[in-house]
């Protein structure tokens, strides 16, 4: 059985009173592993930053503080990598949860990230198949859709950064989307993410190989 990951994605930052961003984000993502949601975010630069609080909601209206994140791991001299795990019993039986970051400056000012929607259970009527796995240059993503519309395939690395994205029109029923141009990716583990009509549906781990598997005819 293939390992499956459920991921969210990061959009923009909201500052209540306007002004420059105290933190520049490279990524903000989430992975569901068993009964735990693992939040990861990476910053490119932090100005006057003090700490984060992680907030969660099940209805996008009422948010509760889950915990405080004081510091991360330094990356490239100016940015940092952070992680927070939510394994609360309140996740049991829920189909989706919403997370946001509340960032505090040293002088007490607050900024919020926009909401990160995390699907806790894969949608039952959509099964994504990805091949070949491992891959070298291209991926085929096959799935059945209950409706026509737009689908997007994202290839996300282990730190949550989107390395490649492809959008395509889909029809009701069977669909096959080929994602090309992956030869330049570094060898390692990635996540192929399927988004249909703006909703994250399913994710699968894929492995990038360094070399092609050449077939040789017998001499």
Describe the overall structure.
There is one protein chain. By secondary structure, the protein is mostly beta strands. It folds into 2 domains: 107 residues, Immunoglobulins (Immunoglobulin-like, Sandwich); 80 residues, Sandwich (Immunoglobulin-like). Helix content is 0%, strand content 55%. The chain has no helices and 17 strands. Strands 1, 4, 5, 8, 9 and 10 form a 6-stranded antiparallel β-sheet that branches. A 4-stranded antiparallel β-sheet has the order 2-3-7-6, with no helix packed on it. The chain has a 4-stranded antiparallel β-sheet with strand order 14-13-16-17, with no helix packed on it. A hairpin with a 7-residue loop joins β11 and β12. The N terminus and C terminus are likely disordered.
List the helices and strands and how they pair.
Layout: E1 13-14, E2 23-33, E3 36-46, E4 49-57, E5 64-69, E6 73-75, E7 79-86, E8 96-105, E9 110-113, E10 116-119, E11 129-131, E12 139-145, E13 149-156, E14 162-170, E15 173-179, E16 188-196, E17 199-208
Antiparallel strand pairs: 1-9, 2-3, 3-7, 4-5, 4-8, 6-7, 8-9, 8-10, 11-12, 12-15, 13-14, 13-16, 16-17
Features:
Immunoglobulin-like, 6-stranded antiparallel sheet, disordered C terminus, 219 residues, disordered N terminus, 4-stranded antiparallel sheet, globular
Number of domains: 2
CATH architecture of the largest domain: Sandwich
Sheet having the most strands: 6 strands, antiparallel
Shape assignment: globular
Percent range of helical residues: under 10%
Low-confidence spans: 1-18, 213-219
| Strand proportion | over 45%
